[in-house]
Amino acid sequence: MAVDSAAHQFPLPAILEHPSSTPPELIAQGAEGRLYKSTYLLPSIPCALKYRPPKPWRHPVLDARLTRHRILSEARNLAKCHREGVPVPTVYAVDESAGWLMMEWVSGGPVRVAINEWLRRRRDAERAQGRSGDAIVEGTSEAEADLVALLRRIGAVVGRMHKVGIVHGDLTTSNMMLRPWEKDKQPVNGHNAEGDELLEGEIVIIDFGLASQSTSEEDRAVDLYVLERAFASTHPRAEKLFIAVLETAYREAFKQAPVVLKKLEDVRMRGRKRSMLG
Amino acid sequence: MSDSPILETLQLEHVPGTHSVHIAVFRDVENAAFLHQQLLARNADFEYAFIDASVITSRLQVLSAAFKAITLQLAGNMKTPNVHSELVYSLSPTSNISEAYRRYGITPTSRALVIVKVLVTPPVPSSATAAPETTSEAKPPLTAQDVEKHLLTHVQGKSVPFTDQVLSELTDWGRVRKYYKLNGVGWLDGVKDQAAKNRETDRLVMGGMALRGATAK
């Protein structure tokens, strides 16, 4: 039970101290909060619980206010996306005073893992043919259609999120899940034949901890820029293809895309911070 | 089904073992006016969450409300007199209490009811609840059998199982869409498959309940 003891180095939020069929599992630990996997209402319903513990180094009154504000803002932004049809986890319960937010557990894995696995297989296949295996993914061959389709879905989802007035603040392929298709959600023209299901699934955006309501083209462009940089560093061989497909799909999903993409060019020139200070 | 128990008993995840949730569903109820009157008269023997089944979309919606009410009771943060009224209030996506009772609670004309009883063993001392209770001092604590007997005696209706199938047959989807402000949610109309549409509606309902009080900027 090494995992179990590791999970309990930190005191659990009070709500998770109450009995459950399986013990809560610590999934991730960030600077601001922890993510647990647990169950909601019934043993058969997995959930994610995000907990922002008290920060002893902050003034207690300020700390409580910041935590409340951040939990509520994350819950509101998730709810807004959900109502507007942007695929995000459903919010199950909120206790902003206790500093936690309980959400639907999204099945499937991060997009990052799926793309890396896809790239690894491709490399191995190339090497098996005696090539070096570091070829740039052009997106032109039939074998690459799955990846192009996935990148297109990412661009579309980001476009829809921006359209409803939310910017994410930390868009990466780790903060997008690939959820197995639910009945009749799978696009009819989707590429899913040929048995390779690695890149199949609905994109679900997660972790709205840094999200905010904004319709400024600057904020939207920074969102895209962060995604672009994150993608380039995790999947360098697909960077060019990614940028091209993302822009196309984003344009299709979002009417104001042209101004944002124009702004994105400026942001690329100077980096994410607008101000020269700080 | 006639000799099977009418109550389903559940122990919710992350709720103290002292709290159990007991649920019965009745359709073709003939005496809703009488039951409603007992609530108005604050008859302690009738302290239940009497929910109008037409606004219920799923088991989880009911259990979510129970979870929220119990959690608030434990934290001493209830906005209504007891855990059962709090449960009805927890179904609402808005903070208007009397409107919540009217919309989600029993009315004199209700025909189908979801009835929830939260039992606490050992009972919480009355000082721990929001309002002083007059029961539980003299009488022995209630058991699920007591609750079942009481409901069978006083609810004139047909007991049906607490399943998603039964609940969705009793749902008035138009009212659900109105109360949970889903009429402006365009993408929902695009979901053609009825079962998928109901599932998505249910998810939005759960989200609305969770966000109560959090929606004001």
Describe the fold and architecture.
The complex is a heterodimer of chains A (278) and B (217). Chain A is α+β, with helices and mostly antiparallel strands. Chain A folds into two domains: 2-104, 2-Layer Sandwich (Phosphorylase Kinase, domain 1), CATH 3.30.200.20; 109-270, Orthogonal Bundle (Transferase(Phosphotransferase), domain 1). Chain A is built from eight helices and ten strands. Chain A has helices at residues 2-7, 14-17, 60-83, 111-128, 145-163, 217-234, 239-253, 257-270; strands at residues 25-29, 34-39, 46-51, 91-95, 100-104, 109-110, 166-167, 176-179, 202-205, 212-213. In chain A, the strands form three sheets. In chain A, strands 1-2-3-5-4 form a five-stranded antiparallel sheet. In chain A, strands 6-8-9 form a three-stranded antiparallel sheet. In chain A, strands 7-10 form a two-stranded antiparallel sheet. In chain A, helix 5 (145-163) crosses helix 7 and helix 6 (217-234) crosses helix 8. Chain A starts with a helix and ends in an 8-residue tail after the last helix. By secondary structure, chain B is an alpha+beta fold. Chain B has one domain (8-210): CGI121/TPRKB (PF0523-like, 2-Layer Sandwich), CATH 3.30.2380.10. Chain B has nine helices and five strands, in the order E-E-H-E-H-H-H-E-H-E-H-H-H-H. Chain B has helices spanning 32-40, 59-75, 83-90, 97-104, 144-154, 164-170, 173-179, 186-189, 194-210, and strands at 8-10, 19-27, 49-52, 113-120, 158-160. In chain B, strands 1, 2, 3, 4 and 5 form a five-stranded antiparallel sheet that branches. In chain B, helix 2 (59-75) packs across helix 3 and helix 2 (59-75) runs parallel beside helix 9 (194-210). Chain B is globular. Chain B starts with 7 loop residues before the first strand and ends in a 7-residue tail after the last helix. The mean pLDDT of chain B is 90. The A-B interface holds A 15-16, 18-21, 38-43, 45, 72, 75-76, 78-79, 82-85, 90-96, 98, 102, 104, 182-185 and B 10, 12-17, 60, 63-64, 67-68, 71, 75, 185-187, 191-193, 196, 203-204, 206-208, 210-211, 214-215.
